[in-house]
Prior knowledge:
15 helices; GMP Synthetase, Chain A, domain 3; 5-stranded parallel beta sheet; Rossmann fold; Luciferase, domain 3; globular
Amino acid sequence: MNTSEFLTIAEAIVPKRPAIIFDGQTITFEGLAERVNRLANGLSEMGVVARDRIAVMQVNTNHCIEAYFAAAQLDAIYVPINFRAKSDELAQMLDIAQPSCLLIGERYLDLAASASIPPQRVVVLDGDSGGCISYDSLLAGASPDQMHFPEAGDDDTTVIMFTAGTTGTPKGVMLTHDSFSSYLLATVEPADPDVEESNLITVPFYHIAGLQAALAAVYGGRTLVVMRQFEPAEWLRLAQEYKANRAMLVPTMLKHLMEHPDFSDYDLSSLSVITYGAAPMPLEVIREAIAKFPAARFINAFGQTETASTITMLPPDDHVLEGSPEEIETKLKRLTSIGKPLDDVDVEIVDEDGDPVSLGETGEIIARGSRMMAGYWQEESATQEILRGGWIYTGDLGYQDQDGYIYLSGRAKDFIKRGGEMISPEEVERVLRSHPDLDDAAVIGVPDVEWGEEVRALVVGRADQVTEEQIIEFCRDRLAGFKRPRSVVFVGELPRNVMGKVLKRDLREEFGYPVENRN
């Protein structure tokens, strides 16, 4: 099913229902469809054609959703860009995707100045256009009627979503129309005139969880309450004001909400479903959440960009801590799992040779199904490395118990997952090694209750010439905020094997204590 039909169906069934609420303004489903038509027509007049890439760099706004459906209408490819990227990172992604146009927020316009996209192909979504095209004027000058009817099939790419690579270079994950439609058709009921729900969205739309949530809301005829970025007080206000029924939160967000001094002053009883994921959930945080959101059903969704989001799920029933002491103990154990595979996905745990391991034995989690990625954009060798025999090799290590629940036990590669963001240690290490007072550096992830994992740097240098604070500040100007180290440990030398490879396992064993425990 072509994903452009999600909006077509919802508009036909609930045209007057609010589709998006953003900054106090409401856009109905018929209004959203008209804005999408105008944008598609305007982009077409700019010269955008099928298979062109349309890059978007902006915090969460209605523009991001409109841009996706306009791209789909034109059979073009939507390329969401992490708005936290630095200029070098942005340049890398634009160089890989080679977009024919860029839709960008005014605050990021300077970052794109060095990109090879001419001003007449840059659309500024808000504020001063700086000599480029204004989004509002583009829509105002275009026809409100649908003039383009998509022909792309299920297997055609609709999104290129960037994820970190093993060398720190981002890779463009190609997701097809079927990557989204097969999942949503199996898990979401279509729009119903008699069923009204609202979904408070805080997860960024450049993240697979954010985009999936937006498309699910449109297809399901749900009202999407959009936040630019997560802020606890604003989230609490919006949840109460719009009586949000659904929300997707990463563990850090959930923790910050419950720690807010005014948390108990808000009426959050409308929340019926809270989905969490994208980072490890500390047991103490989810136990507290279950107690503080008694009306909500919790779902732990596990997946990655390459699998087009969720492949395993811990359902609401496993979050109900009732029963005998033995039953509660079992449920507490299961709260540390990622649940069971979804019905439309095959999931196995295999050894280094690709053979299934025994129950309870740790191996790499692999997945297979119609909605897996088509591959990495123009990266055939990298595609072959991760996509083997129809299976996606996730890089996550885990084991499965006799009841089918899967528990994570690490990652095959050394990526760090902080608050749902994937961080390549190699990228951080390159920056650290460029410091004039450091001779060597390695980066590991360490446990953190708030963010799941934090970045720790192990450096070889002269501690009397450079301090921990100076090293972190050095990284501040060279890396996105979530990538920079939160702690630095000075060591005499890094452990290496005979081939010169740093032994990360040894470093984690010695220095893998949480950030707050420095002794």
